[in-house]
Structure formats: structure tokens, C-alpha cells
Amino acid sequence: MPIWLILLASLGAVHVAADVLRLVATLTFGLRARPRGDLRRRYGSWAVVTGPTSGIGRAMALELAGRGLNVVLVGRDPAKLRDVAGAIARSHSHHGVRTKTVVFDFSLVSTVQGEKAMAALRETVEGLDVGVVVNNAGVAKPGAMFLHEVEVEPLMRMIRVNMLALTKVTAAVLPGMVMRGRGAVVNIGSASAEALPSFPLYSVYAGTKAYVGEFSRGLSVEYKRKGIDVQCQVPCLVETNMISRAMKDIFLSQFVVTPEEYARAAVRSIGHGRMCVPNMAHRVQLLGMRSTPDFVLNWYRLRLHLQQRAIFRSRRIQCSSRNSLFQRGYERRHGGRRSAQTLALMVARTAWWSAWDGAVAGQAGSGRRGGRVHVGGRGGGAGRRRTEWSAAEAAIACTHTCRPPFPAATFSFRTTVDIAAFSAWAATAFSTRTTTTDALQEMGGSRKRRRGAREEQRQIQHPGGYSIQSAARVRMGGSAPAAAADAVLRQQQPPWPFVALVIVGAIHVAALAFRLASHLCLCLRRPRDLRRRYGAWAVITGPTSGIGRSVALELARRGLNLVLVGRDPAKLRDVSEAISKLGGGGVETRSVVFDLALASTAEGDEAVRRLREAVAGLDVGVVVNNAGVARPCAVYLHEAEAEAWVRMIRVNLWAVTEVTAAVLPGMVARGRGAVVNIGSGSTEAIPSFPLYSVYAATKRYVAEFSRSLYVEYKSKGIDVQCQAPLFVATNMTSGVAKAGGGGDDAAAKRSKRRQRRWLSPLFVPTADAYAAAAARWIGHGAVCMPNLCHRLQWCVSRAVPDAVHDRVRLRENLRQRALFQRLRRRPPPPDDQPKAKIDG
Q1: Cα–Cα distance between 643 and 634 in angstroms, integer?
Q2: 757 is a domain residue
């Protein structure tokens, strides 16, 4: 047997074994029931739950109280907090469970009121044996909308609640856990960021949940050795206030679980892995998602969210349109999960509708077409059946089938009726739900025929079937099969498991070869004319040094005028002069002074207004969101000041969102443009980045935000892309080398040699080399690694197990932490010598 077949089979066996191990681990964790009271004994006697007044948070608080844990409830509504505390006291008073409440509106985090609430939370948990923290609070408003349609303030509120509050609450409880040497942090993520390639029209929400997932991965590696389990739980659809009625009707009820069902599985999964999907129905759903190609999921999610967008926008005129159609007497349907409750609801509403229309109950058929109410059940196997209920004495029931505005839409039911304000969603959904029994029987018959055809094919492939077919061919005058074919049938073929493994291995090799070939083709092809394709102007943030400066110069070489956005006016003038010399006066530049660390503040709002004025009327074709910070470098979450994390979040993701939202309306109006967000290989090439958890989480937000925007705006002629570099020779990487280069002891010399090796041009390209590749890759894919050496490192990284990655990165980052601490303790140099500087 050829050696290459054996190698392909071995590669396929490795991938299949990895998938089987993941499946076995998932089933083991899902079916294994931990003893009651185990959480209290293992972690501590108190639990902190955020957002406990409804949905998952309320169910988690009750479930933890049922396990014997005292609960600290953190929410914004005092009345609802008292209601949950009363429910816990009534349900678990025999266990002696105590509760405490902290009023905290997470949308006010990093404000004066938010700091007071955070201080109250710290005082409440001080001295308590807090063992479990559940960061559940989250918002998804304003719902399914394009980014350029939304005001900035709702997006900033989402970022504060979903990310900033989670980070601050975790940092507040971690010191006590570290001191006691035990604890568990549970962050509620979302399948929108972990199971789907993109989540269009919810780009900011998906980005915040991607932040939660990456943040949890990094903290899990950091604090595992300190006895603290950090976990991100990934639910799919749960019946909460966040899921609207329209979404419940669109999705299959079998995969939408109740909060109580989810909470039981979630509490049982605490401590089992850093990423988990507690509910079994959700695991099945995620398995199907991962087996589906990305482009199919992107197409389906965009179509689905566009339908939701139409539903959300039509709520204000939904009732008037519904009543207008009812006045005209059109027959309507009411679909629900429980047929009995749906029927009772329709009977209760019939009298009101009849009275509103001025009709008498006994004359329901007069003036109307039809007189029957259709109840569609969706539970169990009733989703394909219809139960018809004659309403001779009542009017026709009406629900949420009207979704304007869709001019010239047609809704056809028994009688074709032209209605000027019906949504395509209503027609599609209800035509699907009313599939007749005859059609189902026909479909069943076709499946039987297909099974019979497959059985015939199997018989033909069998040697006996082959001989029968050969004899039939001879009788019909055909030539007999060649003797070679008979010999092949008699030969011993490789077993089918071996062939399957060869196919799996070949698929992975082909995918890797295709990626490398596409990269090489892109590097060798002629560069795009960015000015002609997208526009004459480019906006660049952080253009005063590193990647930003090099990209600005590269775009100027390609003939684009530049709008430079930075915080230092002197450095902006220096870059502008360098561009003028490079372009020979043919390239225009404009400067906007904007300290991105002030994003979402009054000063930041004024800077955004100046940016909008600067780009107004310009043919802005390219936007490069490059600005970013990594300070504080290599530090545990509980060791750094909270303001340092807030500044990093504002620069790395808040500013990206605001700048993108500022330039998108003009691009949409012109029907072309490109948005390039600089991410990081720390989120795309390695599983975690310990001691840089917040930095890696902000870059994960950028990547998920870009993926969703890419799907949203592709049809509008706008290319959105996240470029994920690994190490580049910038101030951010040179600061580490400077920190480790000082001193004359042997450890410092070894560190200097190590830094010289990994900062060599073979692994770390210069900023100019990276910028040349980055400009060439604009418009090619949602996420990319432009530099070839980075791409090769990524391919090698994919072959290394996650456990090895985590161990190596943790050791390296702990070494960097020691270097930075030693540098900070070093006495300052004399005034006549330059001071060492840490560029993060």
C-alpha cells in the first residue's frame, strides 16, 4: 500500500480521534450528576449573581440556593431584587439560605453612580466566603439593525453592560478568591460568538459575547493554578425577555429551552472545562452548526435577521394594520406552541374583536370570507398537523401576521388577496406551517423510493448483484463485463474505515493547500487600485507610529488622500509632512485630534463630531482602525487598576465602533468602501493569551465585530475586514525587549538572547513589510493574516495541541511579568541619562 495513503489515513485518524474525544467529554460532562452541596464544599458558601431578576439569572439564583449556597443578588431594580430574595426565602427557608441585595445599574459603570455601586458591592462581599460568581447580566437592544442606523448611545450601553461591568465585577471578587485559594467564575456567553461564523445585524452584541469568551479563556489559564475555575457557558436560545415573540415563532421550539432547564444543566456543569454548552438540546444544535459550511450559515443568519429587522421596525403600526385587515374580513391564522392555550386565547379575544367591529356573535360569517379558526401546534410531532375549529358563533381570530411595510406584497390564503402592507416573513412562515397532509404523504413516498433506489445500488455493488446485472446485460444483447472487472470484484479491497480516514485526511490536506495557494496567488497577483475601487480618501487611526504610520505611508504611495486621527498634534504634523514629501504634493492630508482613550465621554463625543465634519463631503473609501494599547502588560486581572482596563477597552474597541459608525453612512450612500480593523493573532492563532486577558478579549471583539459587519454590508458594496497580525516590530513589542534587556546578571543576559531570537525578522516582520502586505489584502476575506511568515506560523500553531499552547504562553508571559516588576522596582536613572520606557 502506498505510503501517502497511510499518511493521509493517519492524519484523518488524528482528527477523528480528537472529535470523538470532544464528543465523549461533552456527553460525560452532560450526563454526569454531581452530588448536591458539592459547590458549597468545593468553592464556598456564597454566590454572586448579576442580572437575577428574570430569565437565566433568576433561574440560576434559585438553583444555586437549592444547592445550599447563600446568594448576593446584583441588579438595578430594587423591587424585583426583593421579589427574587422573597422567592428564595420561601423556597429554601429550610436550608437556611440567606440573601443580600446590591442595587447596581450596569449601564452606569465607569460613572460616578457606577463607582458608588461598585464600592457598595465590594463592601457587601468583603468578609464573605464567596465561592461562585455568575456574570449573567446582558442586553441585546436595539436588536436587528444595521450599524449605521443605530444611535451610538445604545451601542455604548451594550458595551458597558455586557463587557465592562463583567470585567469590573470579576476583578472585585477575585482578590478574595485568590486569598482563599478556591472559587469559580461563570460568565454567560452566547452561541452567536462561539458557534456561528458571524451574527449580522447584531455585530456589536456578537462582539461583546466574543469578548466574554476570550476573556474567560485567558483567565482560566491564569487562575487555574490558584485553585479558581473560570468558565464561559455558551447557551443558544432560552426563553427570556431577550428573545422576542417573533424570534420564538421563527425558531424550532425543540431547541428553545426554559430558563429552569438551562439553569439545572448550567449549575451541574460549573467547573467542567473553560468553555461548555450545558444543555443537551443546545449541544445538538451546535453540532449541526459546526457541520454546516460558513457561507450557508452566513446566508441563513443574514436572511433571518433581515426578517427580524422588518418585524422590529413594524411594531408601531402592527396593531393598526392588523385591525384594518380584520375589518375587511380576511381569514387569519394563529400559531402557538400549545394548541389548547392558543384556542383559549382566541376564544377570549373573539368577543372583543366582534364588539370592536360592530358585529353580533351569532352573525360571524356575515361580511367576512370564511369562518374558521386554524390552530397550529408546534410541540412534539404536531408541528406538521393542523387542527381546525369551526367558529360559527364567533369572529375570526387575529394575531401577529401583519408585518408592514412591504409595498406591493401579496398574501395568498385560499383566496388571493392583494394587501399593501404584508411582510415577506409572514407569507413564508405561514405557507410553511400550513403544509397539507397529502403533501407530507407524497414526500414520505419519495423518501421510500429513494431508500429503495439506494438498496438497489447496494445490491448492484455486491458481487452477486454484479453477476445478475451482467447476465441481464448479456440477455439484452449487451457485451459481457470485462474479466478485469470481475477480478477487481474478487480482490480484497481496503476496509471501509481505512478509506474513510483517507478521505478525512485528504480533505484537511486539501483545505490547507488551498489556503496556502490562495495566499501565494494573492501575493503574486497585481495589486488592486484602491482609489478607483473604493474612493479617493482614507481614514487612519493611530497613524503616528508602528503599523499605523507604515499603513498611512503605503496608502499614500497608492495615491489615496489621508485623514489622520490621533491624540498628539505634533506627531500628526510630522506624519503629514512625511506623506507630503513622499507624494510630491499630490496627496492631501487632514488631521483630527482625537484621544481615543476618551471615547464615550463628553470630550470623546466632541472629537467624534469633529471627525464627522472632517469626512463630510469626502469620498472616503478606506478606513483603517489601527489604534490600540496593551497596557498594563503581563499582569493578573486583580493586580492592575480598574482604570487601566477601562482605558484599554475604550481605545481597542469603543473607538473602533464609534469611528466605524461615523464613516459608514457615507459609504452606504456611495455604495462602496472598505473598513479594515487591526485585530491580533493572539485571538486567531492561539487558544488563550494569559496575563493579557483583557487585551486578547478586546481584539476578539474586533474580529467578531468585523465578521458580522462583513456579512451585513457585503450586499451594499462595502468590504469589512479584520487583519490579525502576530508579532510586528512596533513599540508594543519592543517594550518587552527593553524590559528584559537591562541588567548585567546571567538571567538578564539569557532573557536578552531569548528576546533577540523571537524578535528576529524571520518571525517578526517590520512595520513597513507588514503594511505592504496589508494594503494588498484589503477586500480579500473577513479575517486574514496578510504577512506570509505570520501565515506559516499560524499553520504550525494549528497543529499544536491547545494544552501545549497554554503552558508555553503562560510560562512566557509569567517571565515577562517578572521582568516588568523588576523594571518597576529599579531606581530611576540620573537626570543626565535617558529613562527606560515601557511601551505597551
Answers
A1: 16
A2: no
Phi, psi of 636 (to 5 degrees): -70, 155
Alpha helices, H only, 525-654 = 530-533, 546-557, 569-583, 602-615, 642-649
Using DSSP, state whether 492 is helix, strand or coil: coil
Kindly state whether residues 285 and 331 are assigned to the same domain: no
DSSP string for residues in 447-485: HHHHHHHHHHHHHHHSHHHHHHHHHHHHHTTPPPPPHHH
CB 704 within 8 A of CB 202: no
Q: Cell numbers for 618, please give them.
A: 469626502
Residue 695: active-site member: yes
At 825, list the grid cell.
Answer: 522596582
Q: What is the pLDDT of residues 579-630, one digit of tens each?
A: 988 866 688 999 999 999 998 888 889 999 999 999 998 999 999 999 998 8
Asked if 434 contacts 374 with a C-beta cutoff of 8 angstroms, the reply is yes
Residue 93: Cβ-neighbour burial (10 angstroms; 0-12, 13-18, 19+): exposed
Residue 831 falls inside a structural domain? no
- Spatial CA neighbour of 778 closest among 718, 712, 711, 699: 718
Q: What region does 366 belong to: left with phi over 0, alpha with psi -120 to 50, or beta?
A: beta
Same domain for 340 and 323, yes or no, is: yes
The CATH number of residue 170's host domain is 3.40.50.720
Instruction: Provide the domain count of the chain.
Output: 5
Q: Which of the pair, 197 or 249, is modelled with greater confidence?
A: 197
**Which residue in 157, 137, 153 sits closest to 73, CA to CA?**
137
Phi, psi angles (nearest 5°) of residue 185: -115, 120
291 CB-near residues (< 8 Å, 6+ apart): none
Cis before residue 632, ω within 30 degrees of 0?
Answer: yes
Q: Which residue has the higher pLDDT, 460 or 662?
A: 662
Contact 275, 255 (CB under 8 A): no
Taking only the tens place, the pLDDT of each residue in 106-145 is 999 888 899 999 999 999 999 899 999 999 999 988 888 8
- Do 432 and 369 lie in one domain? The reply is yes
Burial class (CB in 10 A: 0-12, 13-18, 19+), 585: exposed
Q: DSSP of 221-234, one letter per residue?
A: HHHGGGTEEEEEE-
Shared domain for 46 and 117, answered yes or no, is yes
Provide the 10 A C-beta neighbour count for residue 796.
9
Phi/psi at 729 (nearest 5 deg)? Answer: -70, 85
130-135 and 99-103 strand pairing: unpaired
Measured from the Cβ of residue 108, the count of other Cβ atoms closer than 10 Å reads 19
- Residues 642, 517, single domain; the answer is no
3-class DSSP string for 286-337 = HHHHHCCCHHHHHHHHHHHHHHHHHHHHCHHHHHHHHHHHHHCCCCCEEEEC
Are residue 360 and residue 284 in the same domain, yes or no?
no
Three-state secondary structure call for residue 689: coil
Point out the catalytic residue in the list 695, 701, 713, 770. Answer: 695
Could you tell me if residue 172 is inside a domain?
yes
Query: What is the residue whose three cell numbers read 505510503?
Result: 3
Identify whether residues 460 and 561 lie together within a single domain. no
Short-list 99, 92, 176, CA closest to 131: 176
Residues 461 and 395 in one domain: no
CB atoms closer than 10 angstroms to residue 44: 21
Is residue 408 a part of any domain in this protein?
yes
Position 519 confidence tier, pLDDT thresholds 50, 70, 90 = low
Q: Domain range for residue 454?
A: 440-474+482-493
* H helix or E strand, kind and range, residue 444: helix 437-461
Q: pLDDT digits over 412-458, tens only?
A: 332 222 233 333 333 333 333 333 333 323 333 444 444 554 444 44
